């Protein structure tokens, strides 16, 4: 890739993380420091170490969450405890965070964890944020998460796309699993992104990339494939949730996996879409994860690769 197009503005840096944690974007200028997204709880100490190292003794003033999935806000509590930073969350999540409703916040439903944190301000579509002396526009990006926002800097042509657009795809369309609309919203979000003038996309996961149009094209065909048969979305969702659990725990027994499919609400709902008994479904999913290079089987243990 062209080094010039990948170049970040002064005061801005990306911590590209493994798949379990979202990427973090740090902004430093004379008047303020800010971080976008904080990763998963099991990597919280690593997130703090990365931030501390980069800040060289300065405080973190602002913490911004694109959305409140556990892999984007898992170190919020630790960062707040360490720095007392002001925290901005999407407006639609205020009620769930105020009451710490873990079901509504998706943590219980996905079998994931996130320590309780507080918020100070909200992010609304149309807001402007000043980060590293640049103006960033807050845009609504429903689809993967109905409340997600993305951040766009027109002056630099940079988009922080969260899980709405990755170089190859996007996050699971969770609302559709529960009978709510998500495919149409994701299509509209891709349309919105297509119309932005962007030279660099910083996704929630994976490396930053420059060819936004090609990524939008791939995302559209993926969305067409998933929305043509909702079972495909359900199957993808279970595999993503299983792969996430494996990444966190390193290994799980077949008994544990089977219990999760029965007990973790989002997995149970997705499995119900597939209308197969768990004892038939689980071996299929395991084979697909192995084929995708996400896991390997050793006797009764499935291990993360
Ligand atoms: Zn997400």
Automatic annotation (TrEMBL):
<dbReference type="Pfam" id="PF00753">
    <property type="entry name" value="Lactamase_B"/>
</dbReference>
<dbReference type="InterPro" id="IPR001279">
    <property type="entry name" value="Metallo-B-lactamas"/>
</dbReference>
<dbReference type="InterPro" id="IPR050855">
    <property type="entry name" value="NDM-1-like"/>
</dbReference>
<dbReference type="InterPro" id="IPR036866">
    <property type="entry name" value="RibonucZ/Hydroxyglut_hydro"/>
</dbReference>
<feature type="domain" description="Metallo-beta-lactamase">
    <location>
        <begin position="21"/>
        <end position="205"/>
    </location>
</feature>
<protein>
    <submittedName>
        <fullName>MBL fold metallo-hydrolase</fullName>
    </submittedName>
</protein>
């Amino acid at each position: 890739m062209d080094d010039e197009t990948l170049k970040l503005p002064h005061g801005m840096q990306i911590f590209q993380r493994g798949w379990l944690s979202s990427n973090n974007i740090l902004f430093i200028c004379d008047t303020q420091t800010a971080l976008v997204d904080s990763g998963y709880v099991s990597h919280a100490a690593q997130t703090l170490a990365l931030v501390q190292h980069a800040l060289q003794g300065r405080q973190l003033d602002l913490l911004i969450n694109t959305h409140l999935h556990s892999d984007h806000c898992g170190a919020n509590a630790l960062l707040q405890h360490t720095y007392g930073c002001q925290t901005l969350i999407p407006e639609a999540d205020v009620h769930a965070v105020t009451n710490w409703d873990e079901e509504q916040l998706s943590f219980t439903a996905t079998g994931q964890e996130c320590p309780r944190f507080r918020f100070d301000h909200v992010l609304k579509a149309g807001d402007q944020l000043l980060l590293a002396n640049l103006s960033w526009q807050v845009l609504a990006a429903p689809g993967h998460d109905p409340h997600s926002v993305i951040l766009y800097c027109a002056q630099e042509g940079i988009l922080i796309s969260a899980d709405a657009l990755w170089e190859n795809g996007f996050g699971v369309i969770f609302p559709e699993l529960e009978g709510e609309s998500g495919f149409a919203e994701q299509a509209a979000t891709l349309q919105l992104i297509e119309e932005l003038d962007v030279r660099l996309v910083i996704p929630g996961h994976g490396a930053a990339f420059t060819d936004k149009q090609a990524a939008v094209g791939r995302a559209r065909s993926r969305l067409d494939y998933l929305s043509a048969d909702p079972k495909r979305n359900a199957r993808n969702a279970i595999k993503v949730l299983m792969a996430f659990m494996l990444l966190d725990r390193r290994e799980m027994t077949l008994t544990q996996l089977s219990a999760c499919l029965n007990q973790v609400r989002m997995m149970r709902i997705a499995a119900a879409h597939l209308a197969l008994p768990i004892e038939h479904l689980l071996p299929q999913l395991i084979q697909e994860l192995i084929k995708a290079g996400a896991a390997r089987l050793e006797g009764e243990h499935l291990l993360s690769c």
